[in-house]
Design a protein that fits this description.
Length: 979
């Protein structure tokens, strides 16, 4: 992955994570089958992509074979199968991941380009992404030289190589990042300013991760250290022992003699990885301190400062004045027109991201702290009071928490100072998420949506408040657009393409000019344009090859402040629009980002430290010298010279693409099983699907003992349209009377065969969703003691849900009503079932309540009356037999009747949930069965990219407190599949 994917565990976790997206009604699949898909093939790759990403995909595909050849030459291995590349933009996120399966390697590319402030925001996004992900494939599909291991691997349903199985995460991600920097000059994190900024600042503060934390930690940027520190460590090893030593490590890991990663590593480098990593961090810390001291020395001689500085006073010249100490990720600051308020986004691991408005002229009252200090002094006059190590916190005027699951970002003030324009990642309803514009009145709390499905990442409000200028990203390219805030209408000012990407526009104070960052083939530039549109003027062409971005107007528009990487360190600079003269305003040890100029001569910005991003400020008229004298001396703490071998990737002609239709087909054999009170069963399933999941078919059979469900079915689901359609034929048998220790009526024993068809439509808007499902079936019910009869069924289910996210709480509700009519022989019947549930999540815990109530015609046949207990019917859609209500701890038909009610209270956890359940079925609700237990479940509609259909996994243990099965304990497990 470009951003966070220990051995085999992370690879399997990718698959599971992809499936977990599909868990429950609020599903987000890895692919969205109903979109319009196309496909093309190159020499080494098969691309599958959506229509909107076609230009970006063809551009990447034209150079990916050259990337393949360069990566294979460096890595020393290549996959034996053609690589499938799926290109989709489901959520406006810059990322990708690879699944290094030996028999069908897969790459996912999400084309939305990253911001220039991102660690991955330098160079061509398509080339960097494809190089990184294919480096995973080439690296991790290296096969074992041991014949026994190869034979065993060939028998496994999921096939991974030994490097993928044994390498820690820092190796897999660090090496792919290492490869990024060795292919094309200027592309990849090793060539960027962010990696050295993080390593340098963490080293200066003594916060570099330990070896055990290199794979990842819960600290700020802890997940990225596998990429940043991992790649730098590998470069350090290659510098000591030669580039070939890295490839020799992979060869030892995949040799005929099985070895652990530690043994393979020590055999190449002469010491364990944790020992050499300790030496690397010691050298890195020395170099970072020396580079910092040379920066602050006037004669370019090191001036080592070993004494600790006073708290957070930012002692070094050029680091600015601390406004507020902040932790974790902080969004770009926005100033109100009168400079009295600042709005920014705060986030941390314990709280959801929120927009806060701070008063720059007032500090938050802390009367409670002062009262506590007074009591302490009164009780112990000899006690020493705490020092004031940082500025007091600013007063929070207002905050905008997530609304319906949407977290807001990129706030910008209207001229009235009361309204704020913000963006949020919003559901489009069809499984796609796009960033849209919203207006928040922080005085009233009202939020109004402006656009829908626009893909806007950053925007700024015009002085008159009627329009906004924004960057709109879709399909891999970012345009510069104007938005009418009253209607949401969008006008394109400049269209993005491979050579021109637009980012973070800002209005001048008079509204006549806009400034923005423009990415060309030579990097990021600061540019301006008339607000009405026209020619873009690049202001920083003379400043060399350093990136420049995040511009903001100052002094009424005659000057701009921006982030500049001149000298290899992101700092704040000022440029005179008339003369082009550039002055440095900051000289930080880490990074200074996202400047915002006030009218009273201050420039507010974000300053990187090892625990997050602080809000700081510097005078607009500051002017600092810049020195590049130590850049090349310390390659891992300052931006290093290019180490790649190519200026660019060769472009190859492409064949004509074609419609995806049903895509390339692939099959898989699976096993199913169940064990519960009614008995045990086992089965096999043979399924076929395509990487996108347009059409999935499933043939399965199951045999078992006692009262378990047995039989066979064949079905298919077409998801290439909205709504989806399904069709199934089946033959089932279930005999509850054969259960041990419970006498169920034999009248329910029967065989059931028939066909069913269904269609389903859902519209998920994140804050609320609605679904409609229709099912029809016709078949034969053959009771073991009665003549066979025909069964016809028509059923409709209408469901929906809502989500609220006040502060750090998450509250959701769901309900569904199912109505069915049918005939069984000469009997007509009607049935209604109401299900519902609610959950509350907060303070690290969750409480959930769910239940159902059902009623069927009083004179309905016994087969159609409700039957409580046992596992849910297998092999078919459970809606086909909605009268069978599952409770695996209890025997099948522990209670039957024309009415049923159940309720459950549970404490959901990551895997297991303890629960209390009660249920009753009779012609009149009365005697209740009660159960306590522990259960884990997992469900997906399909993980089509690894040829897995819909799956339902259930396991648990329960104890019956009351009812016919009183004082009975039962464990249960079930593995079922659906097309």
């Amino acid at each position: 992955m470009i951003r966070p994917a220990r051995g085999l565990l992370p690879l399997v976790s990718i698959i599971c994570a992809a499936a977990l997206f599909a868990n429950g009604a609020r599903a987000q699949q890895t692919t969205i089958p109903h979109l319009h898909w196309r496909t093309l093939e190159t020499r080494w790759f098969r691309f599958i992509y959506t229509d909107d990403a076609a230009p970006w995909t063809r551009d990447v595909a034209s150079r990916i074979d050259a990337a393949h050849d360069a990566v294979v030459a460096l890595v020393g291995s290549s996959p034996r199968e053609r690589v499938t590349v799926i290109v989709e933009d489901p959520n406006n996120v810059s990322n990708g991941f690879a699944l290094p399966l030996l028999d069908h390697p897969l790459i996912f590319l999400w084309p939305t380009p990253p911001d220039p402030t991102s660690p991955i925001g330098n160079g061509s996004w398509g080339d960097q992404l494809s190089i990184h992900e294919f480096a995973h494939i080439a690296h991790l599909t290296r096969e074992s030289s041991n014949p026994g291991v190869r034979r065993l691997t060939s028998l496994l349903p999921v096939k991974f190589g030994p490097v993928a199985v044994h390498a820690p995460r820092w190796v897999t991600e660090g090496y792919a990042t290492f490869v990024e920097g060795r292919i094309v000059r200027g592309i990849g994190r090793p060539h960027g300013a962010w990696r050295p900024a993080v390593l340098r600042e963490w080293a200066i503060e003594g916060q570099l991760p330990t070896y055990s934390a290199l794979d990842g930690s819960p600290r700020f940027e802890g997940g990225d250290m596998a990429y940043l520190a991992g790649s730098a460590f590998l470069e350090w090893l290659a510098a000591r022992n030669g580039d070939s030593s890295v490839v020799h490590l992979w060869r030892r890991m995949s040799a005929r003699v099985p070895r652990s990663f530690g043994d393979a590593f020590a055999g190449i480098y002469g010491a364990s990885p944790d020992e050499l990593y300790g030496r690397f961090t010691a050298e890195l810390t020395h170099d970072a301190l020396d580079a910092r001291d040379r920066r602050d020395s006037q004669d370019d001689e090191p001036r080592r400062v070993l004494l600790a500085s006073h708290g957070d006073t930012l002692p070094f010249e050029g680091e600015g004045e601390l406004v507020q100490r902040l932790h974790w990720a902080t969004g770009a600051p926005a100033l109100s027109r009168d400079d009295s308020l600042v709005a920014l986004v705060l986030s941390d691991p314990e709280h959801a991201p929120r927009v806060v408005v701070l008063n720059l002229n007032r500090h938050a009252p802390d009367s409670a702290a002062r009262a506590r200090a007074a009591r302490v002094r009164a009780l112990d006059p000899e006690d020493v009071p705490a020092i004031e190590s940082r500025p007091p916190a600013l007063e929070v005027v207002a905050r905008l928490d997530p609304r319906g699951g949407m977290s807001f970002a990129e706030p910008r003030f209207f001229a009235d100072g009361q309204r704020i324009l913000a963006t949020a990642l919003a559901a489009r309803g069809d499984g796609v998420f796009r960033r849209d514009l919203f207006v928040w009145n922080w005085r009233t709390g009202a939020v109004r949506r402006v656009t829908s499905g626009a893909g806007i990442r950053h925007a700024d409000v015009s002085p008159d408040g009627f329009t906004a200028v924004a960057d709109r990203c879709a399909g891999g390219y970012c345009d510069l657009v104007r938005v009418a805030l009253a209607t949401g209408a969008i006008t394109t000012l400049a269209a993005g393409d491979r050579a021109h990407l637009y980012n973070r526009p800002r209005f001048s104070r008079d509204g006549r000019t806009i400034a923005f960052a423009l990415q060309r083939e030579d990097g990021w530039h600061v540019a301006t344009m008339p607000a009405a549109g026209g020619e873009a003027t690049v202001l920083d062409d003379a400043r060399g090859s350093a990136n420049a971005y995040a511009p903001s107007f100052a002094r009424g528009g005659s000057e701009l402040v921006f982030a500049s990487e001149l000298g290899g360190v992101p700092n704040i600079a000022r440029i005179d629009r008339a003369t082009g003269a550039i002055s440095a305003l900051t000289s930080v040890s880490g990074a200074a980002l996202d400047p915002e100029a006030s009218q009273n001569g201050w420039v507010y910005f974000l300053r990187l430290h090892a625990r997050g991003l602080d809000l700081a400020r510097v005078r607009l008229n500051a002017s600092l010298p810049r020195s590049d004298g130590v850049r090349a001396k310390y390659p891992w703490v300052l931006e290093q010279p290019a180490t790649a071998t190519l200026d660019s990737l060769a472009v190859a002609p492409l064949p004509i693409d074609r419609a995806y239709r049903l895509g390339p087909r692939a099959e898989r054999l699976l096993v199913s099983a169940s064990w519960a009170r009614e008995g045990k069963s086992a089965g096999i399933a043979y399924t076929g699907t395509d990487p996108v999941g347009k059409l999935t078919w499933l043939l399965q059979g199951r045999w078992g003992d006692r009262a378990s469900w047995t039989g066979a079915s064949i079905g298919a689901v077409f998801r290439g349209s909205r709504p989806l359609f399904g069709l199934e034929a089946f033959a089932l048998e279930n005999q509850p009377s054969r259960q041990h220790d419970f006498a169920a009526p034999s009248v329910i024993d029967s065989r059931y065969r028939g066909v069913s068809a269904w269609s389903e439509f859902d519209d998920d808007r994140q804050s609320h969703d609605i679904s409609l499902r229709a099912l029809a079936s016709y078949g034969t019910v053959d009771p073991t003691r009665l003549p066979a009869v025909r069964r016809a069924l028509a059923q409709i289910t209408l469901g929906g849900g809502a989500l609220q996210t006040p502060r750090d709480w998450r509250i959701s509700e769901r309900a569904a009503l199912t109505g069915a009519v049918g005939t069984l022989g000469d009997h007509r019947w009607q049935r209604a079932v109401l299900t519902g549930g609610a959950s509350v999540h907060g303070m690290g815990h969750e409480l959930a309540i769910d239940g159902l109530f059902g009623a069927v015609s009083t004179f309905a046949p016994q087969f159609e009356r409700f039957a409580l207990g046992g596992l849910a019917p297998t092999l078919v859609d459970t809606a086909l037999l909605a009268q069978r209500v599952s409770m695996p701890v209890l025997p099948i038909c522990v209670a039957t009747g024309s009415r049923i009610a159940t309720a459950r209270v549970s404490l959901p956890g990551p895997i297991w949930r303890p629960y209390y359940w009660l249920g009753s079925a009779n012609d009149r609700i009365g005697a209740w069965s009660q159960v306590v237990g522990l259960e884990g479940s997992w469900r997906t509609d399909g993980i089509w990219l690894v040829r897995v259909p819909g799956a339902n996994l259930l396991g648990g243990f329960g104890y019956s407190l009351t009812g016919p099965a009183k004082h009975h304990a039962q464990a249960y497990v079930s593995v079922n599949y659906r097309p």
